Amino acid sequence: MSGVGNAELLRQLDIKVVSDLPGVGEEYQDHYTTLTLYRVSNETVTTDVFLRGVKEVQKELFAEWETSPEKARLSSNSIDAGLKIRPTGAELKKMGPEFNELWDRYFKNKPDKPVMFGSIVSGGYADHTLLPPGKSITMFQYLEYPASRGKIHVKSQNPYSYKKTREIARRMDAFRGELTSHHPHFHPASPAAAKDIDIRTAKEIYPDGLTVGIHMGTWHKPGEPYDASKEHEDIVYTKEHDEAVDNCVADPVETTWHSMGTCVMKLREQGGAVDKRMSDNLGTNTYSSALLVGEKAADLIVEELGLKLRISHVPVPHAPIPTGKPSTQQVR
């Protein structure tokens, strides 16, 4: 244990206090997000086959990376598009006084600040052993400026962003249905009910399958061939629908994998962890600066202790053995 942190808490655990910094571990924050999956046409280029581990496809993509990484498909994170969302006046009226107070204080007069952000990932961002065959895209939506601090617990289950990204997905030419296991469970007879893969796309996946489109109660029924050009009206949600979205959001909500705030770059007296002798006029991203300082500190420690470190070669997930070729390679 480092012994750096809130002295009172460290002593309770019988840890020697090296530096009493009460702010360490406080002010934890992150964007919290949910992910929803949608079916797309078999012609759509996605990462699904690569992620499922098809050797021929993986070999092709890894070869691209080794030859011309700057042009390879693996150089992309597969997030093909993003959108920033601010509610309309009509939507604000439905969001209640608590959210409106935050809106008036933090967002209303700052038109460059979105409440939500949504992205489109070209592939199923999930465990593919749990997904059906075919191709998918993932819509993930998260709060841009969450108000929660400390130990994060969900305080609001607002369904607003799910509805917006759903409408965007339904209007895409590649859209072929919703992966119902990754959506709220609406009453099957309601207009908001999620509809899985359409019958034409299903038959393309299993052209010789004998059970494609089989009707099994409300669990699955064959869908009509999908035509995105016919989708012009937004889905109308009732109070019961909103409750279904609330219940769905409360289950899979998670952080967006870049937590921050537990070692704030400000003075100790202000709950931070920075020596007051340090300059406070950085003209850059403070996180990048912290990484730079940390890396330099590691170099100094290695030098002082006379250590020799072996840095592993890991350019891509499969970590190939170096071939001896120059690291800067020519474009094909």
UniProtKB/TrEMBL annotation:
One MF term in the entry's GO annotations: flavin adenine dinucleotide binding
Which SUPFAM superfamilies does the record cross-reference, listed alphabetically? FAD-linked reductases, C-terminal domain, FAD/NAD(P)-binding domain
Q: Could you name the domain of life of the organism this protein comes from?
A: Eukaryota
The Swiss-Prot or TrEMBL record describes its family as follows: Belongs to the GMC oxidoreductase family.
Name assigned to this protein = Alcohol oxidase
